[in-house]
């Protein structure tokens, strides 16, 4: 029973909860048991709510019994990326500098999932302040990919993606600044959506780069992502970059799942050199399936995408160096006083030296440099111009097609340590995901199969014009149906059974 | 563009208030040089006729009425996570050093 519960989609679990077949306490308990069994090996969580989650679930069960009107995800457990602040739950953003901090308020997306009756299970691991593509930059140790525990789960939101891939949670919240939702989805065989910039409030999201960050759903299927998207999207007066217009239902778009006459543009620059053969093979097979269903596949060019990574690695550190100035040892988090005392400035410097990891220091220094007098125009100014050029590439492409498609990332999951010594090669991993953040457009990654050469998951990415998130759910749902018919079920059904062969590792991890 | 020196990195670390060790400065000097080399290609296409973009979605400034909202923290809540506080204030060490 317990194993059956954790393998249900969020939508299916929600339906069983609504019909009274299962209680939220039972569903929550099943997921907590799963976390206890496998998270020693996976390490998706930095904090688990435990009995408090059971209490929350019991309250939802009481409301349901009393006949309260509840939404489709009420009573469904959810994991929350540690970048979002949570009242009464530790929030570290993967950094030592926030170890033990308990925020006094909830981020808006957290408020919304609580209002929808969902049960927060805990906080998921991430690269420190979301700086990374592997979770190897987490101050609390990496998360392991449930498909192969020696490999990275993607990043920065590797914890959220691994938690749903390992059936520790039916769905999770993530954040995407340059691919931190979509690239982990790609390497773990899960679904991740970066909504249009401003669709979901950033209030209470510990900011990395404010003009790029966006909160979004992390799930095992497209419908669950849509249901969660519908919960968290919407205008928030507490975020002045929040889009005021109303949104159509993403779940309705999933139920439409009709690609006849849909024009899909294949981005030429993201379909060749540097992309693993199996990644490209699964990508083209997916396109053929869609074409058979009546979609029209056309090649488009985005000539400035090759400059996007360079622009991103100037804009992101610039914004991050400013955002991370708030970690000053005064209002929250760590304080380290130099031996024999010191001025507030010396305390601040000692705290930041001890509290930040190497990647965070690297990017703060880089950002400080890019913004400094004499270099501002050449670096930050030029990067902002590239941003315009990338947006123009999107505008030109979307004048001719409804959605764009590419592999989500160039390779399948790499092994731990493989790219740690070379920051530039780590940065290249984000080549297909970064342009969407620079332009603010929405993107989805869903599984397109396993790469034949290594048996690891591969994702396909669709991008739509700003505010047209529903198009992603429509095409994503259509492709998912076609692929699952071919596979005979979800891709994750082919993942290794962690509960049997990883028990030893779990026990070792607990020692 | 110019090469990055260890003195520059030390200066940047001071501006960013991070007490880097000499070893870290040495390491970062090499890495920053490599990263800046990789990103300076932005200047190839950033010609004077291209306007800069700072924000992905065009937006107007947002105003609200100047009234106290419903999400305001109490002093106790605001101070709850502070490393050190005194009554209703954040407490820090001396602002000025002896020589100042």
From TrEMBL, chain A:
Which Gene3D superfamilies does the UniProt entry name for this protein? Amidase signature (AS) domain
The segment(s) forming the Amidase domain are: 26-472
Q: Which InterPro entries match?
A: Amidase, Amidase_CS, Amidase_dom, AS_sf, GatA
Domain of life the protein comes from = Bacteria
Single GO cellular component annotation? glutamyl-tRNA(Gln) amidotransferase complex
Pfam families assigned: Amidase (PF01425)
For this protein, the Enzyme Commission number is: 6.3.5.7
Q: Which UniProt keywords apply?
A: ATP-binding, Ligase, Nucleotide-binding, Protein biosynthesis, Transferase
Fetch the PANTHER family from UniProt.
GLUTAMYL-TRNA(GLN) AMIDOTRANSFERASE SUBUNIT A, TRANSAMIDASE
Family stated for the protein in its record: Belongs to the amidase family. GatA subfamily.
Identify this protein by name. Answer: Glutamyl-tRNA(Gln) amidotransferase subunit A
TrEMBL record, chain B:
At the highest ranks, the source species' classification is: Bacteria, Bacillati, Actinomycetota, Actinomycetes, Micrococcales
Source species, domain of life: Bacteria
The record describes its quaternary structure and partners as:
Heterotrimer of A, B and C subunits.
For the biological process aspect of GO, one term held by this record is:
regulation of translational fidelity
Q: By its UniProt entry, which Pfam families does this protein fall under?
A: GatC
Which InterPro entries does UniProt cross-reference here? Asp/Glu-ADT_sf_sub_c, GatC
Q: What does this protein do?
A: Allows the formation of correctly charged Asn-tRNA(Asn) or Gln-tRNA(Gln) through the transamidation of misacylated Asp-tRNA(Asn) or Glu-tRNA(Gln) in organisms which lack either or both of asparaginyl-tRNA or glutaminyl-tRNA synthetases. The reaction takes place in the presence of glutamine and ATP through an activated phospho-Asp-tRNA(Asn) or phospho-Glu-tRNA(Gln).
What is the recorded name of this protein? Aspartyl/glutamyl-tRNA(Asn/Gln) amidotransferase subunit C
Gene3D superfamilies in the record, alphabetically? Answer: Glu-tRNAGln amidotransferase C subunit, N-terminal domain
GO MF, one annotated term: glutaminyl-tRNA synthase (glutamine-hydrolyzing) activity
Provide the family line.
Belongs to the GatC family.
Give me the reactions it catalyses: L-glutamyl-tRNA(Gln) + L-glutamine + ATP + H2O = L-glutaminyl-tRNA(Gln) + L-glutamate + ADP + phosphate + H(+); L-aspartyl-tRNA(Asn) + L-glutamine + ATP + H2O = L-asparaginyl-tRNA(Asn) + L-glutamate + ADP + phosphate + 2 H(+)
Q: EC annotation? A: 6.3.5.-
The record's keywords, sorted A to Z, are:
ATP-binding, Ligase, Nucleotide-binding, Protein biosynthesis, Transferase
Record's SUPFAM superfamilies?
A: Glu-tRNAGln amidotransferase C subunit (SSF141000)
